[in-house]
Amino acid sequence: MRCPFCHFSETDVIDTRKLYEGEVIRRRRKCRACSRRFTTYERIESVSLMVVKKDGTREPYDREKIARGVRTACYRRPVSADAIEQLVNDVEAMVMATDEQEISSQAIGDAVMRRLRDLDEVAYIRFASVYRAFTDIGKLREAVDELLEREGDRNGRP
Question: pTM for the complete prediction?
């Protein structure tokens, strides 16, 4: 592993930890030349999965694109980075469990929305407003009403 500071090609691993139920390995490393420390993460490389967009175009699956969308929706909300990472891991596990070469962007978006609804309702509305491309306030109101109905069902209200 090359040092990101001095670009020396030899480093020592000084600590290794499993994260997210063994899905990710975090390693603390120390450069043999400059002695600076840095962290690397390892995860299994996903198979070549293609995402079929709404317009029919295809693009390679990109975990970071999901993470970026969730982080944007959760901006300035009381949602921890660990909770966001776990949500992305859960969605990615669902995507990889399909055993297909292609998955629709709608299936991915729906999975993100289901998990965001349970995590933070404001983040859910933010994500839904972009994902569903609300064109007017009526569509936004429908999404909020859906949340309120669900909340009423959870609290035993009619």
Answer: 0.63
